[in-house]
Amino acid sequence: MTDTLTPVLTDNWDAERAWTMAAYEERGGYAALDKAFAMGPDAVITAVKDSGLRGRGGAGFPTGMKWGFIPQDNPRPKYLVVNADESEPGTCKDIPLMMATPHTLVEGVIVSSYAIRANTAFIYVRGEVLHVVRRLQRAVQEAYLAGHLGKNIHGSGYDLDLIVHAGAGAYICGEETALLEGLEGRRGQPRLRPPFPAVAGLYASPTVINNVESIASVPAILTEGAAWFASMGTEKSQGHGIFSLSGHITRPGQYEAPLGITLRQLIDLAGGMREGHELKFWTPGGSSTPLLTPEHLDVPLDFESVGAAGSMLGTRALQLFDETTCVVRAVLRWTEFYKHESCGKCTPCREGTWWLTQTLARLEKGQGTEEDLDLLLDQCDNILGRSFCALGDGATSPISSSIQHFRDEYLAHLTHGGCPFDPAASTAFVPAGADA
Ligand SMILES: Cc1cc2nc3c(=O)[nH]c(=O)nc-3n(C[C@H](O)[C@H](O)[C@H](O)COP(=O)(O)O)c2cc1C
Ligand code: SF4
């Protein structure tokens, strides 16, 4: 069973002091740099295109194609910005990656910046994770001291400065244009597109914004080859990815596998659902991806198949809930999050997320009526596709999908006059080995 896993990014996470430059170089780290310099920037872009790598931040846009959009005839400086905000509920892959092996990301930044001809790059980290900020800062310092960053890197004539920037802590700052606003020192709110960041991004200059995992995947693509990467996964969703299992599972954690693996396989690898319990519902890619149920256990976890099943692959944040969980309560929690994180720029999301929580809270307490379900769907309708950015759309996903799959459970709250579940039962779970 274990050969289903393809540890590449996670391969050295358990090495002795894996986060240090010495440990990283011992395993061949920074070898991709010389390879990139020998190839030249255009060939690096071609290799990333050929690998089939698609953005690992949620939307799955082809990474090499995004790099190709940078207008090289534009005289302004080019920038690479790594999106390390990672604030979506359930999403928890980039932070462990940066803690375990920050140099994988730093090396990826250098190769990627070289490819798009950027001489300044930023890693925008979520402000609350000070331990990650410190780890990255130290890794960057080590890379400067070793000559991997700064002037004339490895004698190639290429210069790069890398700045670690801590955000102030807002989910919306993970949205790429709000992130740019934050990086420029303004309030984090999305920008109108066009112009797209590739044309006018940071400081109105051509900018590539990529997720941590996307950029960290680049060194291995260069050292192992585009064909090696493309040989994993499915026809249109190639390569490996980190699947983050959390919730009512025996061994929660990060499982790196080819795209297209199924949740059933992952649950087996993780020791099954907690003993004596069964899967009730799950998110394939964080709280803004529509909920799925046990009937979707064999859906290949790739962009196309999850889309065809009515959800989105998102960030592969697999949150698993067993039969002790009240779906209405879980959805209310997520909706409160979206209400809190709505940046307030547009009316459908600012007002709509407030109304959603009011209606849901009423239902959860068993005080609503059956018409409230239609009201909820109507409220979702007024947000989905009418909001300025995808935060508003995402807020509606758990609601509409839970009503689709669990309408009876909503109604049970009304007939029961409150929540028919004991919420304490869903939090009493202790993962195996946690008390050792
Ligand atoms: C509300 C919101 C939050 C987001 N948060 C993140 C995030 O924390 N990290 C991330 O990489 N992408 C996040 N995204 C997606 C980014 O806007 C963007 O698509 C991504 O960084 C592009 O990188 P990729 O092509 O490598 O996936 C978010 C989008 C939205 C709408
Ligand atoms: S959808 Fe929400 S988060 Fe996005 S711009 Fe509108 S108010 Fe802000």
UniProtKB/TrEMBL annotation:
A biological-process GO annotation: cellular respiration
EC number, UniProt record: 7.1.1.-
Catalytic activity, reaction form: a quinone + NADH + 5 H(+)(in) = a quinol + NAD(+) + 4 H(+)(out)
Cofactor(s), names only, from the UniProt record: FMN; [4Fe-4S] cluster
Keyword Nuclease in record: no
Any Pfam family the entry gives: NADH_4Fe-4S
Gene3D superfamilies hit by this protein: 3.10.20.600, 6.10.250.1450, NADH-ubiquinone oxidoreductase 51kDa subunit (3.40.50.11540), NADH-ubiquinone oxidoreductase 51kDa subunit, iron-sulphur binding domain (1.20.1440.230)
Start and end residues of each NADH-ubiquinone oxidoreductase 51kDa subunit iron-sulphur binding domain: 328-373
Keywords noted in UniProt: 4Fe-4S, Flavoprotein, FMN, Iron, Iron-sulfur, Metal-binding, NAD, Oxidoreductase, Quinone, Translocase
Family annotation (InterPro entries): ComplexI_51kDa_subunit, NADH-UbQ_OxRdtase_51kDa_CS, NADH-UbQ_OxRdtase_suF, Nuo51_FMN-bd, Nuo51_FMN-bd_sf, Nuop51_4Fe4S-bd, Nuop51_4Fe4S-bd_sf, Soluble_ligand-bd
GO molecular function annotation: 4 iron, 4 sulfur cluster binding; FMN binding; metal ion binding; NAD binding; NADH dehydrogenase (ubiquinone) activity; NADH dehydrogenase activity; quinone binding
Family: Belongs to the complex I 51 kDa subunit family.
NCBIfam families named in the record: nuoF_fam, PRK13596.1
Function field: NDH-1 shuttles electrons from NADH, via FMN and iron-sulfur (Fe-S) centers, to quinones in the respiratory chain.
Name of the protein this chain belongs to: NADH-quinone oxidoreductase subunit F
Protein's organism: Nocardioides alpinus
